[in-house]
Amino acid sequence: MDEFSFIDSIKQTYYRQSSLIKGIGDDAAVFRAQDLDLVTAKDMFVENVHFAKHTMQPFHIGYKALAANLSDLAAMGAKPLFYLVGISISDGWSATDINEIFQGMKELADTYKIDLIGGDTVSGNELVISITVIGHTNKVRYRSLAKEDDIIFVTGTLGDSQAGLHILNNGGTYVDKDYYVNRHQMPIPRIEFSQRLHNISRLALNDISDGIASEANEIAQASQLSIIIYEDKLPVHPSYNQFDTELQHKWKLFGGEDFELLGTVAKNDWDEVQQVARSLEVQITEIGYVSCDHPVGQVFLQRKNEKLQRLEKKGYNHLSR
Length: 321
Hints:
The protein has helices at residues 3-9, 58-75, 95-112, 160-169, 177-185, 191-196, 212-223, 245-255, 270-280, and strands spanning 20-22, 29-33, 36-46, 79-89, 115-123, 128-137, 151-155, 203-207, 226-230, 261-265, 284-291, 299-302, 308-310.
């Protein structure tokens, strides 16, 4: 059983709380209070699974752990309000280290004016950080909102985080080394970009945590449509071609942890999305379209001078073997 099968296996057949709007199945759960939908998400960061001491300073660990959670809220169109932190601390981490981890979280929290409102601390065999974030919105962006002929877009560039991890794990001389390392250690959740799209009535969004192939398949499956992606339109950094060709292909499609946003939008709203991106100096790229002419729930990659090929739901999967 892989991670996604396991998630499906534990889904409830019904929910008891009438205030719950959306449970398992999107980047975050949604429940309603008054005239706003409250949105909550939770991620765990585990030593030697999500990070290692030789690739991440304690400050970066805290920063990235919170950034990953805030990226989920961005994908739901939610404004972050609060976060809670549970942390299991092993003997190999000092009080100074733990303080630096929380300082990393605080720097990002200060940026978005969100408050730490609780959590838990225990001892354990390795460092584990579990963060819960809470936000609100009056317009939730579900993966199931894609429609036929929508434009598919992505923010930023792809493959950068895995390129940064590669640099940290492999000696040598690299062009734009600091850029790639920073993209791995301190990703930017697209909170402000997501918030500025509030005037658009319908958007499907997903954050790129497991790789664009995985995230695109999730939108296609939730919307019961097919997605066509043009490989030559996938945006990469100008110096990305310094890496091995096979690694470039793997990282930009299946690498994950870029924490950019993948989205679909109606053609008549595309200009507004571009205007928002320009106003925030966020790179945005049209990479494909939504179709009803192919098997639903599937993603296809259009390569140069080649037929469409199925883009499988591959990427980071914790329970795959």
